[in-house]
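user: can you give me the structure for this one chain? C-alpha cells are fine.
assistant: on it. calling the predictor now.
[tool input]
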Amino acid sequence: MRKHRHFLVAALAAALMACAAAALDHPLTNSAVREAYFLGQRRDSSTADFLAKYVKRLPATRTGWQIVEVEVRTPYAQLVRRSQQSLPGYSAQQAWEEYRKHPPDVVVRVYLAAPLTEVVREDAWRDFQFRAQQEKELRSNSIFGNPVYSFAGVGRSSTLIGAEVFLEFAAERISNSPLRIDVKAPDGRVISASFDLSRLK
C-alpha cells in the first residue's frame, strides 16, 4: 500500500512538472521581471543578441510585397525591450508594477516591405493572411497593422515603404512547443517562420 502511494505521488509530481514545462513562462516572477529589466538597461551587445533570437529575417522575392521579418515577443522579451527603450529614471520597481497591473500578451510582429515601383494603399496589409500554429491553429485576440513611411526630410513628402502587422495571443494559451507563423501574400506566395519557444524566455 505504501509503495502504491509513493508511486502515485511520484506520478502526480511528474505530471505537474510536465505541465509546468509545457507552458511559456507565465506569469513571470518578480525576480524574472528584474532580470529582464537589468538586461534591457545594459543596452549593449548582450541586449541586442538576446532580442535578435526572437526575430527571423526572410529571403527576398523578385517582385511584389516582401515579407521581410517575423518576430515573436514573449512577455519576458517585451520587458527587456521596454527597459531598453525607457527614459532615465525608469526603475526595476516600476517594471514590476507595470507587469503586475498589465501582464503583456504574446505578440507576433510581421514586417512587410512595399514594392517601390507601385502605388500602394495604407491598409494593403489587410490583403495578406496570417496564421499561427503550435499543436493546432491558434486564434489571435486581435490583429492590427500600421503603415511605415520613409523620412524624406523637412519640407519633403514621405513615402509609404511598408507595414507592421501585430497579432496578439493570450500568454496562457501559448506553450513551449514550436510556433510556426505562415504569411500568405495576395499573389498566393506563402512564407513561414518557426520559433522553438522551448529555447526562448
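assistant: here you go. Strands lie at 55-57, 66-73, 106-113, 129-133, 137-138, 142-149, 160-169, 179-184, 190-195. The helical segments are 2-22, 30-42, 45-52, 75-84, 92-101.
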